[in-house]
Design goal:
The protein has a single domain, classed as 3-Layer(aba) Sandwich (Rossmann fold). The protein contains 5 helices and 4 strands, in the order βαβααβαβα. The longest helix has 22 residues.
Length: 154
């Protein structure tokens, strides 16, 4: 299946929703990076298919680059929709289950969806350093994608 992309990728959206499975790893990292890079010029939120439990490796990986995600509270897309609505210009799904959910949301919301398949670092095995390296790689990959997609000045 081809990823869904906006008709005009040169236009920077005003609001972006990052989605992953549990709103504890990939979407948290992406949202924190986007907020750091673009401040209040883009409204950023994140959610998951379900709300999971905070992951200490995420906090460690983000802390390494000076971003504090310790106050993040995981929430499902259903919770987000209930409290904030889904009035986003763009949803970026980072996992297959999140992509399916985002596409379902387009049935009742004017929402553009992009799919950025992103590995799940929680699947990494090994010692602490090996596991943390997987989180760092996801963090770096997401930062590159975010910088490329939402270039300053767009």
């Amino acid at each position: 299946m081809e990823p869904s992309v906006p008709a005009d990728r040169s236009a920077r959206p005003q609001s972006v929703l990052f989605l992953c499975g549990q709103n504890v790893v990939r979407s948290v990292m992406a949202a924190a990076l986007a907020r750091h890079l673009f401040g209040k010029s883009i409204y950023i939120a994140s959610a998951g298919v379900i709300a999971g439990e905070a992951d200490p490796f995420v906090a460690a990986a983000m802390d390494e680059i000076g971003l504090d995600v310790s106050r993040h509270r995981p929430r499902s897309l259903e919770e987000l929709e209930e409290y904030e609505g889904l009035s986003f210009d763009l949803a970026i799904s980072l996992s297959p289950d999140a992509h399916h959910l985002a596409l379902e949301a387009t049935r009742t919301n004017a929402l553009t969806v992009e799919y950025w398949p992103t590995p799940d670092p929680t699947l990494e095995t090994g010692n602490r350093e090996q596991r943390l390296a997987a989180y760092r790689q996801v963090r770096e990959d997401l930062e590159q994608r975010i910088r490329a997609r939402f270039k300053p000045g767009r």
